Amino acid sequence: MKMYIAVLRLRLNMGLQYRAAALAGVATQFFWGFIIIMVFEAFYEHAAMTQPISIKELIQYIWLQQAFLVFVMMWFRDNELFDLITSGNIAYELCRPSGLYGFWYAKLLAQRLSSALLRCFPILLVAFLLPKPYKLEPPPSIWAFLLFLSALLLGLLLLVAISMFLYISVFITLSPMGSLLVFGVLSEFFAGLVIPVPLMPVWLQKIAYVLPFRWTADFPFRVYSGHIPESEAVVGIFIQLAFLTVLVLLGRAALNGVLKKVVVQGG
């Protein structure tokens, strides 16, 4: 465990050095945040019926999505790991005196954490200072805020566990872009990053509630806004823990399975 913590700390420090790229990301996410909000404003203004989530709650949802985008998007990937698998240099990774799953998990976690730490605070600060109705409102209570933090961190751990299957699949497909396309489209759609889950048709909502993706983004963001009551949020956190445990165990088993069949050629 000390080894994985050391890897996490080292990669975190490395990631925090890319400040210029983070500032560019902040500007881009503000731009997209305003566009998405204005699109939904137009939709709500001309909607024929009351929507299951209010425009105020939706604005909180969008700003949190932009602030913690690297926590919740599958497209944020480590190309170095793809290169190791497709080039055969994975052989060097197998020589390390550590478990490959834990090593990669710590590395991927640190990358997302470092990028989020550089981007989220400027976005949150400015979003809180915006005029109504565009401003980010505080959560309804301290308890809701603590539940949100717990759900957000568990969602991050869950997304990293899901993303491990992306890298594992490349051992079989040898096509990083193909695997990324499949995982990216599925995860981000059912996580509520394209359309918030409450605005989906009922039959799509049923699918989203069965899959683990919505617990990475939709769930914590709606806890913050108060759209999910605190009692339901507590139950949801236990569901996140259950999904996390199952996916980590399945991920370890899947990685061990593909490593037994991997063939490295060259000299």
Write up this protein.
The chain has 267 residues and is mainly alpha-helical. The protein has twelve helices and no strands. Helix 7 crosses helix 8 and helix 8 packs antiparallel against helix 9.
Please specify the SSE layout and strand pairing.
Layout lengths: L1 H14 L3 H27 L9 H13 L1 H4 L6 H9 L2 H5 L5 H30 L12 H32 L2 H15 L11 H9 L7 H8 L4 H32 L6
Helix pairs in contact: 1-7, 2-3, 2-7, 3-7, 3-11, 7-8, 8-9, 8-11, 8-12
Number of beta strands = 0
Radius of gyration: 19 Å
Strand content: under 5%
The helix content, as a percent range, equals over 70%
Q: What is the mean pLDDT? A: 84
State the end-to-end CA separation. 34 Å
The computed structural class is mainly alpha
Q: Rough shape? A: globular
Catalogue the unreliable spans: none
Comma- or semicolon-separated keywords:
267 residues, globular
In short:
Helix content is 74%, strand content 0%.
